[in-house]
């Protein structure tokens, strides 16, 4: 969709193209299938659209002939945890090494900091970050 131009933007055109969350998930599942990575977990925050994200993951796995091993959904509430203690504990409880993460860019930075501190970002851990709001910065989270 092309947003309406404000009066100060007359004469310029801004068009942002991005893939939908559904398209991103379809590609991710093709990668998972290609590498025979069938066990995964879903990690979300309360970011708007997270319920639709979880539902679409279920649609993709339930309608597939692949024997997906969906190891559950962890929905994080990042408020009232300034030290990240609860977050690190919750991330450690996820049994799958492949994680599909749906959140905002700011939340991703917090989650990856906690995951790194918990030892969940090195070799053997694969994170797929999904969302339409993750770009737009020159600096990427570690």
List the helices and strands and how they pair.
Blueprint: H1 21-34, E1 39-45, H2 50-62, E2 69-76, H3 85-92, E3 98-102, H4 105-117, E4 126-130
Parallel strand pairs: 1-2, 1-3, 3-4
Number of helices: 4
Q: How many β-strand stretches? A: 4
CATH level-two architecture of the domain at 39-127: 3-Layer(aba) Sandwich
Question: Roughly how much helix do the residues carry, as a percent range?
Answer: 25-40%
Structural class: alpha/beta
Domain Receptor ligand binding region: 3-130
Main location: membrane
Pfam families: ANF_receptor
Organism: Oceanodroma tethys (Wedge-rumped storm-petrel)
Walk me through this protein's architecture.
- The protein is α/β, with parallel strands linked by helices and 142 residues long.
- It is built from 4 helices and 4 strands.
- The protein has a domain at 39-127: Response regulator (Rossmann fold), CATH 3.40.50.
- It has helices at residues 21-34, 50-62, 85-92, 105-117; strands at residues 39-45, 69-76, 98-102, 126-130.
- β3, α4 (105-117) and β4 form a beta-alpha-beta unit.
- This is NMDE4 protein.
- InterPro entries: ANF_lig-bd_rcpt (IPR001828), Peripla_BP_I (IPR028082).
- Keywords: Membrane, Transmembrane, Transmembrane helix.
Task: Write a short abstract of this structure.
With 142 residues, the protein is an alpha/beta fold.
Keywords:
34% helix; 142 residues; Rossmann fold; 4-stranded parallel β-sheet; single chain; alpha/beta; 18% strand
């Amino acid at each position: 969709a092309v947003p309406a131009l404000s009066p100060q933007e007359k004469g310029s055109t801004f068009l942002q193209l991005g893939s939908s969350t559904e398209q991103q998930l379809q590609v991710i599942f093709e990668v998972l299938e290609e590498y025979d990575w069938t066990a995964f977990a879903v990690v979300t925050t309360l970011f708007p659209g997270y319920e639709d994200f979880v539902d679409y993951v279920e649609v993709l796995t339930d309608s597939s002939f692949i024997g997906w091993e969906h190891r559950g959904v962890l929905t994080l509430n990042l408020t009232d945890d300034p030290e990240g203690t609860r977050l690190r504990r919750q991330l450690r409880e996820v049994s799958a090494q492949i994680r599909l993460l749906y959140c905002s860019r700011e939340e991703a930075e917090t989650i990856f900091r906690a995951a790194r501190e918990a030892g969940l970002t090195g070799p053997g851990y694969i994170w797929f970050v999904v969302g339409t709001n993750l770009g737009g910065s020159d600096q990427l989270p570690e």
